[in-house]
Amino acid sequence: MSLPRDVAEARDTIARAERFRRLWRIIRVAMLAVLGIFLALLVVYTGLAVAAAKGAWHYVFMLVGDAFLAFLMVLVLRHRGTERMFDAEVATATDRLRASGWRPVIKDGEVLVERAEG
């Protein structure tokens, strides 16, 4: 039995949003790792700039550049708009399914639909 078109589209929308949510989590973990490296470099560059106070302007420039990149990464990691976008997409698709008399079921990472009872 094939599903009605609107039900299949809503199911696919939920599956796509969940895939992108998992991908976004992986990207955030990678960004946290890079942020840790940047913070370690900030400590190293600060030590080098203080130890070689004369003529060590390139260390200061590297320090400022890494600090700026770390700041941008913190902004991206703190931003919750992407999570809200995924939540809104899933909620909209779920509402469309409910209006059609179906409900989403996620089993083993796969999005299935079944008839809503009652």
Structure summary:
The chain has 118 residues and is mainly alpha-helical.
Describe the structure.
The chain has 118 residues and is mainly α. Strands 1-2 form a two-stranded antiparallel ribbon. β1 and β2 form a beta hairpin. The chain is rod-shaped and about 75 Å long. The mean pLDDT is 84.
Strand content: 5-15%
Rg over C-alpha atoms, rounded to the nearest angstrom = 23 Å
Overall pLDDT, averaged?
84
- Helix-strand pattern: HHHEE
Helix content: over 70%
Most strands sheet: 2 strands, antiparallel
Overall structural class, as computed from helix and strand content, comes to: mainly alpha
**How many angstroms separate the termini?**
21 Å
> Main sheet: which strands, in order across?
1-2
How many E-type strands? Answer: 2
What are the segments in which pLDDT stays under 50 over at least 5 consecutive residues? none
Shape: rod-shaped
